Amino acid sequence: VFITTKNNEKYQCILPAEQIKQKPYQGEYGPGPDPADLLSTLADSAKCSYRLEAYWTYELCHGKHVRQFHDERSQKIPTRKVEGRDMRYYEVVMGNGTPCDLKGHTPREVHILYLCHPQSHNEIMSVKEISTCVYEIEVLTPVLCSNELYKFQEDPVHRINCHSLPGSPDEPLSYTELVEEQRIEQSGQKEVNTDPPEDRPKAHKDFSPASQPPTQHDMPPAEFQTKIRTPKPDEQLTRDFLRGDYCLQGGTGWWKYELCYGKRVIQFHVDQDHGGRTDILLGTWDKQKHVEWVAKRSSKSIKLGYTVHLYTGGDMCDLTGRPRQVQVRLKCKESSHLQEVSLYLMEPNVCEYILGVESPIICPLLDKVDEHGLFPPID
């Protein structure tokens, strides 16, 4: 396929072949185990496979039987758009909550949407009030993935190679400018390349997302990226946040929450009538304890669009006799206002908390986390 940029630069891109023909295996010891022996394990373990059509459902229990049936109770499974992907979910409604003064003391209600994600740990992805005193919680869980109807579908990744045509530079002008801006921003030094594009060393660029590992210079141009569009980062605000001088506050109801990054997490209540404030220290920052905790985790949360930091050594818990601790889940928030922030707290275990923090400040930092999920140090 041929592509022309806005600067009239022409390229030929080679799309991946739909099928790759392979020669029949002719090894020294034959083609391998007998297919009947290989498939016998399916029958021995009494495994069944299913396929759902518009009306009929087909059930194949290997080595046992094949059934065609229609379930009168079956209905269309709802989906939810999550980060550009249609994901099926299972909904649980919980009622009989605290009476809502705004709705004539009608009990509050919450809709919990469970979505399959094999690398999740039953995390709450979002909490919002969809109408007065009616709430919605999105939960990522690996448990639901055992059901074929809700299984998480990975997008296939294909390699696309682009080659410049005669009269065009190896790299599009917009891409060259983008890489140069990013290099200058990263190094803090401004350098000028006086060589015209046609005199620069020829290079083959692979814009494939499968390239491993991607570097700053190998990033695809902006038109090839699908990233959240957030305001340009405020360097001073970001520095203050990373130093712990600019603390994020939020929360609804009696308790409010405060995160001073790299320092502490506090749960507090301000008495408007008497002017007092009650503080509960949920945890303080200890990098070594966080690194040890990350090493024990089986998956990396950054793949889910956020990073998690562990704060330990909070106020002593009367119920457990141990200091409180909190996992701070830092996630990008789409907003045109850099200072907008959303915080929520849950307590999966007694005096062990998870604080969700969503803010546009976090968006550019997620691209720079290290192997421990930590943001880069301040220069």
UniProtKB/TrEMBL annotation:
One of its GO terms (cellular component) is endoplasmic reticulum lumen. One of its GO terms (biological process) is retrograde protein transport, ER to cytosol. Residues 197-207 have a biased composition (Basic and acidic residues). It is found in: Endoplasmic reticulum. Residues 46-147, 245-365 form the MRH domain. The keyword Disulfide bond applies. It comes from the Eukaryota. Residues 181-232 are annotated as: Disordered. SUPFAM superfamilies: Mannose 6-phosphate receptor domain. Keywords: Disulfide bond, Endoplasmic reticulum, Signal. It holds the Pfam family PRKCSH. InterPro entries: Man6P_isomerase_rcpt-bd_dom_sf, MRH_dom, OS-9-like, OS9-like_dom. PROSITE patterns: MRH (PS51914). Probable lectin that binds selectively to improperly folded lumenal proteins. May function in endoplasmic reticulum quality control and endoplasmic reticulum-associated degradation (ERAD) of both non-glycosylated proteins and glycoproteins. This is Endoplasmic reticulum lectin 1. It comes from Nematostella vectensis. The lineage of its organism: Eukaryota, Metazoa, Cnidaria, Anthozoa, Hexacorallia.
